[in-house]
UniProtKB/TrEMBL annotation:
Organism superkingdom: Bacteria
EC number: 3.1.2.-
Statement: the UniProt record of this protein carries the keyword Signal: no
Claim: Iron is one of the keywords in the record: no
Pfam families: 4HBT_2
Protein name per UniProt: Acyl-CoA thioester hydrolase
Keywords (A to Z) from UniProt: Hydrolase
Signal peptide start and end residues: none
Enzyme class, broadest EC rank: hydrolase
GO terms, molecular function: hydrolase activity
SUPFAM superfamilies registered for this protein in UniProt: Thioesterase/thiol ester dehydrase-isomerase
Annotated InterPro entries: 4-hydroxybenzoyl-CoA_TE, HB-CoA_thioesterase_AS, HotDog_dom_sf, YbgC/YbaW
């Protein structure tokens, strides 16, 4: 099920014209991903203590409309199905007042063991992510 992460655009996230500086969208994706995992009951720090790491190996963002200082927005995060031990997330950033989609994106993280080897299946602590998923377009 998609998770919504609400935030208000902060002054420090904007350029001198009050428009959000583009790398901040990826930071918001990261925050929404962390919210998703937390709501799914996955403790990332516990996974790290067990020796797992989840490096991001791919990230993309399509900028459709600008977010501006003080805008209230929602970042919607949803996992997508994968065949190996990786976490693929899709994101959509929506302007709360207008309902317009400001950006869409995707990140992919692989799951490595303590020796840096790629796992072929998700650790038991992450099996909840294999549940059926609702399309991100249906969320808001």
């Amino acid at each position: 099920m998609p998770v919504s992460h609400r935030l208000r655009v902060r002054f420090g996230e904007c350029d001198p014209m009050g428009v959000v500086y583009h790398p901040n969208y990826l930071i918001w994706f990261h925050e929404a991903r962390d919210s998703f995992l937390q709501q799914a009951g996955i403790d990332l720090q516990a996974l790290v203590r067990k020796g797992y790491s989840l490096p991001i190996v791919d990230a993309s963002c399509s900028y459709l409309r600008s977010a501006r200082y003080a805008d209230e927005i929602t970042v919607i995060a949803q996992t997508t199905a994968t065949r190996v031990a990786k976490l693929a997330f899709e994101f959509r950033i929506v302007h709360d007042k207008t309902g317009e989609t400001l950006a869409t994106g995707r990140t992919v993280s692989v799951v490595l063991d303590q020796d840096g080897r790629l796992l072929l299946s998700l650790p038991a602590d992450m099996k909840v992510l294999e549940a059926p998923r609702q399309p991100i377009e249906a969320a808001v």
